[in-house]
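User: Predict Sll0309 protein's structure from this.
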Amino acid sequence: MVNLLVISLRIAPAAEAAFTEFYHHHYIPKLLEVVPEITTARRYEEYGVAGSLKWFSKRLLTFYELAPNVSLEQINSALSRPGREEETATWQHWKVNALQGLSRVAYQQTYAHSRRPWDGIFGNRPFFQVSVEVKPEAEPEFRAWYEESYLPKIMADVPTWAACRRYTSFDRDPVIYHTIYETANLADLETSFASMRSAYLYGSNADWDRWVGTAITYQDAASYRPIFRRPG
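Assistant:
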């Protein structure tokens, strides 16, 4: 079953305000009305890129949480349901004329640490996302080490992580794995990064590096802060 649909995109700063007005207050409300299989919409913007050229192409994410036991086929069918033709046409206009690096990928949650926020997942919190692609033949061994050794140790050594979950792509080749570390606020995010760079975590970081190339074929990491949520 699918847990998340993630929309990823970039847009030029000059067009961002007009697109955001349409997306937040027209497209998403109509989508949630017509497709109740989508229970919540959360938007995030890449954080920590101020003062850099990357600010001009910061990544924006939309997390659509899905109702339990929804299959990829069901959600794809629901997305073609009539009732939002005007919003879809306007979206297509934006897609053709302004949106860059647009992708839509479905994910299934495959791991969750026992530490969880009091108000549930994907509250109004920033997060740190680590993304990897792994050689298929090495994935079982890597996953066992990562989920049974590495993540429990990191969560113990960095108490300001409020939650940790892993998601596996459902309709993407090659498969991509996202680990999401949530924090209570931006201050805790910075504190968590300082802890991750501490000397006592050198061993864990070195262990990670040993998997690069032997198992991990691609890796990326970025921080995000919340900019929209519906329902509120």
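The domain at 4-106 is CATH 3.30.70.100 (Alpha-Beta Plaits).
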